[in-house]
Amino acid sequence: MKIRIIKSIPNAFTLGNLYCGFLSIGFAANGQYNNAAILILIGMMLDSMDGRLARMLKADSTLGKELDSLADIVTFGIAPSFLVYYTYFYHFELLGLIVAGLFPLFGAYRLARFNISSTKSSLHYFVGVPITAAGGILALLTLFGSYLPNIITTVVYTALCFLMVSRIRIPSLKEVPLPKYGTIVTIFLGCLVFVIYKGTYNEFPYLIYIAVPLYIAYLAYRFVKKHKKEHEA
User: Fold this and answer.
1) How far is CA 184 from the centre of its chain?
2) Of 170 and 175, the one with more pLDDT
3) ∠ Cα 24 117 46 (to 5°)
4) What does the alpha-carbon distance between residue 77 and residue 26 come to, in Å, rounded to a whole number?
5) pLDDT for 32-81, tens place per residue?
6) What is the mean pLDDT of the chain?
7) pLDDT, tens digit (0-9, with 9 covering 90-100), for 83-108
8) CATH code for position 138
9) 81: domain range?
10) 52: in domain
C-alpha cells in the first residue's frame, strides 16, 4: 500500500499541472489575465517535477506518460491560446478565435509525435520546440504584453506554432541536474516576483506564495542529492 502511494506521487503532480490549466482558462475568461498566466507558469513548475520524481521513485509508467500528455495539451496548449485570444486576438472577432485555436492543434500533433518517438533519442534532444516551453513563452508575453508591441505577440505566436512541429533539434535537460540551469530558474522566479510587485498578489496571493517556496525547496533537494552522490563516489 505504501509503495503504491509513493508511486502515485508523480501522477499527483501531473494532475496538479492539469488543474492549473483548467483554472487558468477560468481566470482568463473572467479577465484576470495575470493570474491566468501565473497558473500556466506554476503548471510549468509541476511539469518539470513530475517526470524527475517518477524516475527518482522508479515510478515510470505508460499511464503517467499518457496523463502527462493530456495535462500538457490543456495547460500549455488550450490555456495559452485562450489567454492570447482574450488579451489580443479578440480584436479580430471570429478570425481571431480561429487563429487562436491553431496553437493547441500544433501542440497536440507535437505531443503525439513525441509519444511515439524512441526513448533513447528523447533523452538527448527534442524534435521541435516542446509545448511546455511554447506555452510558457506565451504566458510570459501576456504578463509583459503592455511593454511590447502587439505585432511581437503575433509573430512569436505564429513562430511557436510552426517551431513545435518543426524538425529542429532542441537539447533535452532530462539527464542534466536542474541546478546547473540556475540562470533559467532565476529568470523564471524573477518574473514571478515582478508580477507580485506589480500588484497581482492582492488578487491571487496564496498559490504563488506556496508554489515558489516548494519549487525552490525541490531545487535545493536536487542540489544536495547531486553533491552527496559526488562525495560518495
Assistant:
1) 13
2) 170
3) 30
4) 15
5) 888 898 889 888 888 877 777 777 777 777 787 888 889 999 999 999 99
6) 76
7) 999 998 888 889 989 999 999 999 99
8) 1.20.120.1760
9) 2-175
10) yes
The C-alpha cell of 50 is what?
513530475
**Three cell numbers at 41?**
507558469
Stated pTM of the model: 0.75
Residue 28 lies in a domain: yes
| Residues facing residue 169 across a β-bridge | 127
Cα separation of 33 and 27, whole Å?
Answer: 7
Residue 153 lies inside a defined structural domain of this protein: yes
* In-domain check, residue 124: yes
Domain count, the chain: 1
- Report whether 96 contacts 83 (CB < 8 A): no
